[in-house]
Amino acid sequence: MTRPPPRKERSKITKVLLFPILAIFFLVGWSLYWIGQQETKQPKKSINKTTSKQKEDLELIAIPQEEQTLLS
Fold this sequence. Notes:
- The protein has 72 residues and is mainly alpha-helical.
- The chain has 2 helices and no strands.
């Protein structure tokens, strides 16, 4: 049985350079999450419901497509 090759560790310089980038991503993501939570707490406006009489006046029809003819 063979051992898997050891993992290469990141150098300290790489970790130090990646930390600010990861911190910025975290702050942007958290702030977007927080803004989204603030919008859902606002009271929603009620939607006017249509009466049954208005629904009876509605008519749906299908419009056939016209065939294109070639002019010779």
